[in-house]
Write a structure and sequence with these properties.
Blueprint (H helix, E strand, L loop, with lengths): L1 E10 L2 E11 L4 E6 L5 H8 L7 E6 L2 E2 L5 H7 L1 E4 L11 H8 L7 H14 L1 H5 L10 H13 L5 E5 L7 H16 L3 E6 L2 H7 L2 E6 L2 E7 H5 L2 H7 L6
Parallel strand pairs: 3-8, 3-9, 6-7, 7-8
Antiparallel strand pairs: 1-2, 1-4, 4-5, 9-10
Helix pairs in contact: 3-6, 6-7
The structure holds adenosine-5'-diphosphate and magnesium ion.
């Protein structure tokens, strides 16, 4: 479904993604594991068109999307839930969901249907639909941020460190939510520093170190790789 071929990405003169290639098949959950600063967010921003690779291609369902606008990439079926749960704190839960649906905003019936679908999947959001997003717990905000990204019904959902900064109970809820979306047929690419829970929901994984993929394999293989155990399965480092 998505093929990243030998991309390089720089900020000014500093190249932070160095010849990265990987792929995601329809229906998979793929995780990229990497420490702080490895280049995970940069890869996400490049897939969504917010940054352009200096070289290499990004092919989504047969089309090279590496040169098209961020808006057209969303329309093609890719959305990202960015790092740090960026909900609109002064807006209610339902307003936040509506804001996620800007691409289909003219079809009010469809927006309403999608909202009902999200409430059905995540009843906590339904209970809190009139509450200001800023007053939700961290875990609920993460749930809202992911549900908002789902409002355009993407084929590929990108999640940038969904567990970051959450208490352990909410981390588990977040990964349960990811599992639920995957079971409904959404293809998911997730990046994480904390590998353990992510590998529990993933089919395959890549390990990114300073802009290069250094290990790849099935989630099972990666989970038992001694190099990974040492660096990414212990206490959270950052
Ligand atoms: N806007 C920016 N300008 C310059 N350098 C940046 C910028 N954003 C990130 N970087 C650098 O790029 C590298 C990768 O960053 P990032 O993709 O955010 O890593 P991660 O998400 O894995 O923590 C880091 O060395 C970081 O300092
Ligand atoms: Mg990041």
């Amino acid at each position: 479904m998505l093929e990243i071929n030998n991309i390089r990405v720089s900020y000014g003169k500093v190249e932070v993604i160095k010849d990265v290639s990987f792929h995601i098949e329809k229906g998979e959950v793929v995780v990229i594991i990497g420490a702080n600063g490895a280049g995970k967010t940069t890869i996400m921003r490049t897939i969504t068109g917010l940054m352009k690779p200096s070289i290499g291609s990004i092919v989504f369902k047969g089309q090279d999307i590496s040169k098209i606008s961020a808006e057209r990439i969303v329309a093609a079926g890719i959305t990202m839930c960015p790092e740090g749960r960026q909900v609109f704190p002064q807006h209610t839960v339902s307003q936040n969901l509506k804001l996620g649906a800007y691409l289909i905003r003219h079809n009010r019936k469809l927006v309403q249907e999608r909202m009902e679908k999200m409430y059905e999947l995540f009843p906590i959001l339904k209970e809190r639909q009139q509450q200001l997003a800023g007053t939700l717990s961290g875990g609920e905000q993460q749930m809202l941020a992911i549900a908002r990204a789902m409002m355009v019904d993407p084929e590929l959902l990108l999640l940038d460190e969904p567990s970051a900064g959450l208490a352990p109970i909410y981390v588990k809820n977040t990964f349960d939510m990811i599992k639920k979306l995957s079971e409904r047929g959404t293809t998911i690419l997730l990046v994480e520093q904390m590998a353990k829970m992510a590998l529990g929901v993933a089919d395959r994984a890549y390990v990114l170190e300073t802009g290069r993929i250094v290990i790849s394999g099935s989630a099972q293989e990666i989970m038992h790789d001694p190099r990974v155990e040492e660096s990414y399965l212990g206490q959270k480092k950052s």
